[in-house]
Amino acid sequence: MPFTLCMMAPGFHSSASFLVLLGCLFIVPESGAQRPVVTVTNSGNVQVFRTDTANLSCSFVSSVPLPVYTVSWYKLNNDGSQEAPFLVYVTNSPVQEDANRLAELGLTGRVSFLPDLTSITIQETAQPDTGTFRCEVDPIFPGGGVAASVDTNLTVVCP
Ligand SMILES: *[C@@H]1O[C@H](CO)[C@@H](O)[C@H](O)[C@H]1NC(C)=O
Ligand SMILES: *[C@@H]1O[C@H](CO)[C@@H](O)[C@H](O)[C@H]1NC(C)=O
């Protein structure tokens, strides 16, 4: 809308259009500043003994208040490729589990979000849990942002 006004402003022929242009100059940078820039962090890689609980931390900050976002957890394939997330949280909605993906990963019934709704906990770890987990945060509202993620390598060792 502000852009449309800018394009239609005939120039500096009258003080009125000059004012329109001035208004655009102020409005456009302001809406640019509303665009969320999300930074996602963890507290490093995790190593646990087999059967122990592994907490994989994830937290994020946003450049502007972010009332609506999605947190998705993936486990990467050995070649680094990414498939469907096994756990998804969308602000103010129930946690969504992908039963098929959880079964493929052998994680059924052993993984859930921690109370912060970004970190996860894996119970009764087994050696096949070893691998790279990805926490991705996708800003939904305000819009215009891009998803950001952090990878955590989990290593399950024998006692
Ligand atoms: C995992 O996080 C939960 C909740 O914060 C905590 O109670 C538990 O002690 C943690 N477990 C490990 C192994 O860090
Ligand atoms: C996790 O492991 C992968 C595969 O071994 C490696 O390429 C990657 O750099 C590691 N990532 C971190 C955060 O240590």
UniProtKB/TrEMBL annotation:
Pfam families on file: V-set
Keyword Transmembrane among record annotations: no
Keywords: Signal
Source taxon at top rank: Eukaryota
InterPro entries: Ig-like_dom, Ig-like_dom_sf, Ig-like_fold, Ig_sub, Ig_V-set
Signal sequence region: 1-33
Gene3D superfamilies on file: Immunoglobulins
Domain called Ig-like: residue spans: 36-155
Protein name listed in UniProt: Uncharacterized protein LOC109486661
Source organism (scientific name): Branchiostoma belcheri
Gene name linked to the record: LOC109486661
